[in-house]
Amino acid sequence: MRLSKVNAPFYAVIGDPIEQSMSPAIHNACLQQLGMEARYEAIHVPQVELEKQVERLVEAGCKGFNVTIPHKLRIMDLLDEIDPYARAIGAVNTVEVHGKRLKGYNTDGPGFYRGLSDFHQGNLRDAAVLVLGAGGAARAIVKTLIMKGVPNIAIANRTVSKAKDILEESGGVALSISAAEQRLTEYDIIINTTPIGMYPNEGAMPIDLSSVSSKSTLVDIIYNPLMTEFLRIGLEKGCAVQNGVPMFVHQAALAFEQWTGKEPDIDLMEEIIHQKLGGKPTC
Ligand code: NAP
């Protein structure tokens, strides 16, 4: 990657792989709509180059950047300051640059929470929540739900010990997937955070939904495809369903607000993603 110092502010997302990232499209559209002379780029950064490339970004005058797979944990070692909330989640996806000082934030968890709060009928604090998967995204979501005062959380994962690690002393329950299948009717909200259902396994299911109640809300944080098998079966069962687009656009919007102090147009962001994925906002 070659970067030269530029006058107009610029922002970026770094990761590996990065070619498929939709972040540049949504951020650039919002920068343009607000009449801001700034740009946002996707930069391919392999793990071994992380430190060197972050130095280059700062030297080139980058004002802020997003961090995606596989750098969300390792970036923390390169920062001067970490927001307490990101520290509690244990991962950083947004970095703000002040001169040479770097401050890290996590907007994945709050982005998810904003998207779910807009959608869910009723008080989230009264909901019994089942999270499928115990990776980085599950960690951000569960820690956020706990911090927001949602008391009734279970995590079901292939590796149950990882679910226990996330829940720590919170009082939540760690389950195997088959144990969760036996208790499915207990949950008001079921959130898939595994990649099961993404290309190339679009027909695959993270859990058997045979016994799901039509009163449950199903959320899949996958947004490509827009309609996963998990959501399709949920719809057939009469559940309310939400895909991963709201989480994605809200995490982007929170980063945008952090860097620019301005509120981006969420509807514009959603429209661009639906255009790119060739679908309509079905859920
Ligand atoms: P991750 O850290 O790799 O975690 C993946 C989780 O899924 C792990 O708990 C893993 O179980 C489980 N898993 C993976 N393959 C499995 C399989 N074949 N069978 C059973 N369990 C399996 O990934 P992540 O960063 O959390 O991301 C997960 C998904 O969320 C991805 O699809 C990503 O695109 C999506 N995501 C969306 C947004 C958004 O804005 N909408 C943001 C972040 C991530 P083990 O613990 O047993 O390995």
Summarize the structure.
With 283 residues, this protein is of the alpha/beta class.
Topology of this protein?
Blueprint: E1 10-15, H1 23-33, E2 39-44, H2 50-59, E3 62-67, E4 81-82, H3 84-89, E5 94-98, E6 101-105, H4 108-119, E7 128-132, H5 136-147, E8 152-156, H6 160-167, E9 173-175, H7 177-182, E10 189-192, E11 217-220, H8 229-236, E12 240-242, H9 245-260, H10 266-276
Helix pairs in contact: 1-10, 4-5, 4-9, 9-10
Bound molecules: NADP nicotinamide-adenine-dinucleotide phosphate (NAP).
NADP nicotinamide-adenine-dinucleotide phosphate is lined by residues 108, 133-138, 157-159, 162, 193-196, 198, 221-223, 244, 247-248, 251.
Strand content: 15-25%
Q: Any idea how many domains?
A: 2
Distance N to C terminus: 38 Å
Question: What strand line-up does the widest sheet have?
Answer: 2-1-3-5-6-4
Poorly predicted runs = none
CATH class of the largest domain: Alpha Beta
Corresponding CATH superfamily of the largest domain:
NAD(P)-binding Rossmann-like Domain
Judged by helices, strands and strand pairing, the structural class is alpha/beta
What does the main sheet amount to?
Answer: 6 strands, mixed
- Which CATH architecture of the largest domain is right? 3-Layer(aba) Sandwich
In total, the number of strands is 12
Radius of gyration: 19 Å
Shape designation: globular
Give the CATH topology of the largest domain. Answer: Rossmann fold
Q: Tally the helices: what do you get?
A: 10
Order of helices and strands: EHEHEEHEEHEHEHEHEEHEHH
